[in-house]
Amino acid sequence: MAYVDYIERDISISIKKPFNTNDVYKEITRWAKKHRYTPEERTYQLSGERDAQSLKIYLVLEKKETDYAKIGIDVTLIGSDMRNIKIKNKVMQEGSLTISFSLYIKSDYEDTWSRKNLARFLREFYDKFIGSKRVESYEKEAKNDLYNLKNALKDFFRAPKLKK
Fold first, then answer.
1. For the whole prediction, is pTM greater than 0.85?
2. pLDDT(162) > 60
3. Which of the listed CATH numbers 1.10.3470, 2.170.150, 3.40.198, 3.40.50 matches domain 3-158?
C-alpha cells in the first residue's frame, strides 16, 4: 500500500481573459516532460452548450525519484462560462479558468515494504531517523518544481504571443 504525504494543497491560478485551452494543456505537458515528469490525464469533462460551456481536466504529473519514492503534482483545470471567440483568425476561449495544484510524495508505491510488518517498521524507522535528510531533499525539490510550474504558467499567460 503506497503512502501519500501531501506537502502543498490547493495552490491556484485564476485567469479571466481570452485563452486557448489546447495551448495551456500543451504548456503543462511540455513543462512536465522537460522536468522528467510523466503526465497522465485522468479526467476530461466538457459540458454545457456553445454559449456557456464548463470544462474540467484532471492531470497527474509523477516523477520517480527512487524505487521507493515518487514526487507527484495533481493539476486540475476548471473552466466555467466558456465560449469560443475568434481573435486574429484563431479560435480561443473566453471565460474564467482556474488551475489548481496539489503536491505530494508517494512512498512505497510498488508495495515492497508494506507486505510484512517488520519490514514496514524498519522502513518507517529508517525514514524517520536515519534517512530524514533524503526525505527533506525530496520535499525541497518537489516544492521548487511546483513553484516553477506555477511561475511558468503565469509567464505563459502574461507573455505576448509571437507570430510564427
1. no
2. no
3. 3.40.198
